[in-house]
Amino acid sequence: MSDEPSQPNADLRFTRLWIEAQHTLTGFVTLHVHNYASVDDIIQEVATQATENYDKYDPARPFGAWLIGIARMRIAESYRKQGRSPVVFSNDVMESITEAFLAAQPETNDRLEGLHLCMAKLSERHRRVIDLRYGRQQSSGEIADQVGGSAQAIDAMLYRVRLALRDCIAKYMEGQR
Amino acid sequence: MNPSKQVHELIQAIFSGEATPQQVRALEDWLLEDSSHVQLLVDLALLDGMILDKQKNEDAAAVLNLLGELEEQAEPDFTLLQVPVTETPSADPGEESVTFQDLWSAASYLTAKGLHSRAGMIGSIAAVLVIAVVLFFVFSGAPTQTLQPNSIVDDGSATPRVVAALTAERDAAWERRPGQDLYAGQRLTLTAGLAEITTANGAIAILEAPATIELIHHNALRLDAGKLLGICETDASKGFRVRTPHMDITDLGTRFGVDASKLGATQVHVIEGMVEVASPVIDTSGPVRLSARQALRVDSVKSQQVVYMSSPFDNALAIAQPRPRFEGLATQWLGRPPADLTLGQQTSLALQVFIEQRGLVLDRDTAVDFNAEHAWPASGIGQHTVAVGTRVDVYLLHLDTPGESGDSFIRDGQYTVHFDRPILGVIGAASSLRATDAVLGTKGVSYPVIDPNAEDPKQETASGIDYPGGWSFVDSAEVVNNGTSLHLSLTTGAMMDQVRVLVAADPAGEHP
Fold this sequence. Notes:
The complex is a heterodimer of chains A (177) and B (512). Chain A contains 8 helices and no strands.
């Protein structure tokens, strides 16, 4: 019997690796791309490129790091097409950011569980604003027209809610350790 | 780490895409000061991505479950298309080639059925498309085969992410200790003692170590090794399924024991009621039904009836206790209270129900705040009595606010808890609760302490249910259903809500 894994097994392994790294990748792209529709486009482009080039992936390297490398190229390409300059961190900072993303990957399950619990604790008003921003991808101005207040107030609210969620999730994860 | 307002403004500018080069450089200086600063930025980015995915849909989780089912049923020379069609309640058997449309249809079907299985990963529409793209490349070069969406999924009912709770333990030790909430896809290994898991549908599985299980969904689990006692006494829990290495057991309303502790074979012993057993080695046209005092042993080549024995499950039977009943996941039965019931120590958002004492004989007239004749809050505080010499079971209902307090974390809930015997009295005021902790509570448990500097001078709301004139919202409670059920309407925010319930004990019961 051959020691080589069958092709379907390799494909299944790729799928598993992808699913495990997906949230790390989405987080990395979200840090650099602020239009959520563009985030989806870039994720799909990364997926297609990774699928087509999986045979070139070195298993000795973290899969998430490989995906982030592809994502950086796709993000730069996206900005070029829009005629814009991307946010460019220095190499030192980018290296620290990438390491932090990869270090967080094993805790994805706990983060998701914590997010589920912590989102349930939000007030109705905060949940609605979250849904309008992340689900319906409305701008702060559009959200303000619906729920009241100014666009700046909506921005500030969203940021405060995200900080509160982050702290809530961190406490949940601490309890899981 | 406590970032300055300026740093927060820089981070906001980065996430809005409006940061100037100068702002980027300023933020970089801060990031390079300490690795925890980078962690904040990364945490917020991860959170953004996860909220994005969560807000879309959860089809990818269902597809992941589908992948898991396909993977586990594969032969050693596995190909994705060797899928034995085992459960097709309404499928029209027949072959069709698997195409990209089939995969998308499967995901759409699962969405339409409202399946939400927690496989540890929540995806998005984009993720589903990605997975479909990947699987298409897998399928495109393979021979045709039948893939029927509803052949893999056990039922079409909505499956919540939290599918069970850890409700009791005795001398338990775990390979990795779980929380109280248990999720689909979660794998648990009990290395010592006994543990009781109650599923969202009310099925009870009591494990005896060493045992390993994986939760499949709200009414099914896989027993990979060890012993399990299944108890299904509610209508909702009928159909509870235990998958083992050698057979699948479906409970039809009963108590049954499963022993997969011996390598190479699994046994099922029906203690009460009836189960259905399905296995590739059982030579019948459908599942086999076993009734009370029947037992079956199945290995990889054959099945045979064996002598019925309940003794292997005596330890598990010993920790199975009568308990209150309720619907859904907003309320959880957790057996004995944990060691710490002070504010913020419990991570569950559910109303938790504990048994504090069984068969306690009151050594004095005991004041309660309301009963079947008098509802809260009109009943006043401590105005009613349960007489000395009365034998009671004492329950504590506990609703905590994990983590931070504040407007973001106020929640409203309606809860109804049903007891098998009459409710004699309920204690809801904080002062009444704290005055009875020592006598009615569980020894060794840390209960909240009334703060003498609390804003509310009556201190009635510090840890009990709210009283008029205290905080800005008022809870209500009443005994209903001919005195055997307690209905609560609670608004919980900065402080916890607790209620202590005295229920008439079974005269034949013993004081633990």
